[in-house]
Design a protein that fits this description.
- The structure is a single chain.
- The chain is mostly helical.
- Helices cover 67% and strands 0% of the residues.
- The protein is elongated and about 70 Å long.
């Protein structure tokens, strides 16, 4: 009797998820093959497709069930305690910890870690900083504005919104998202006395 038949369906599904996480951590998401997952789980490749429509669904289920979750449910109850800044720092630390686990799995799909030029295309931080510095020299951005921090926050906002859209499946239009992301940055960048 094969190892597959010795296990109930739910147990095999769980073994496939565990094996998938193991193989992803070992090889990266882009180089994870169902044949390697099947070997690790002790089943046939066909068994994987009995439980999951394909690799995207399998990967989503691994992220959903095998990685730490991000919950800020208790944050509203902290209103009025400590300081607003301290409470937000705690929430952001939790989010950073969560995304530090999840994002590398997805980033591997976008760029091979050894491919420096391609990675630079995917993170156009320097180009955005150069643009903001040029605007600073023209007087259209406040002289003391931390343009590198603003550039990082803009790109992080884009990444975050895209990631949340992919996970949640719903979001405002891209134009609305862009306006919201830029709105706070503009407050930091505006010269004194500027009008919108």
């Amino acid at each position: 009797m094969s190892a597959e038949l010795e296990h109930r369906p739910q147990e095999l599904r769980e073994r496939i998820l565990d094996a998938t996480l193991h193989v992803i951590c070992e090889r990266g998401m882009a180089r994870t093959r169902t044949s390697a997952i099947a070997r690790r789980a002790g089943c046939s490749e066909g068994s994987i497709y009995r439980y999951f429509e394909g690799k995207p669904e399998l990967f989503r289920e691994v992220v959903r069930t095998r990685l730490p979750s991000l919950s800020l449910a208790g944050l509203a109850g902290r209103a009025g305690s400590a300081t607003v800044e301290a409470n937000l720092v705690g929430a952001v630390e939790a989010a950073l910890s969560f995304y530090a686990e999840v994002v590398p799995l997805y980033a591997d799909l976008l760029s091979d870690r050894r491919d420096g030029p391609r990675r630079r295309e995917l993170t156009p931080l320097h180009e955005l900083v150069d643009y903001l510095r040029a605007e600073q020299r023209l007087g259209r951005v406040r002289p003391g504005a931390d343009v590198e921090l603003v550039a990082r926050l803009l790109l992080a906002g884009c990444l975050g919104e895209s990631f949340l859209r992919a996970l949640a499946g719903e979001a405002p239009s891209r134009a609305e998202q862009a306006r919201e992301i830029v709105r706070l940055a503009v407050r930091e960048l505006e010269p004194e006395g500027a009008t919108r």
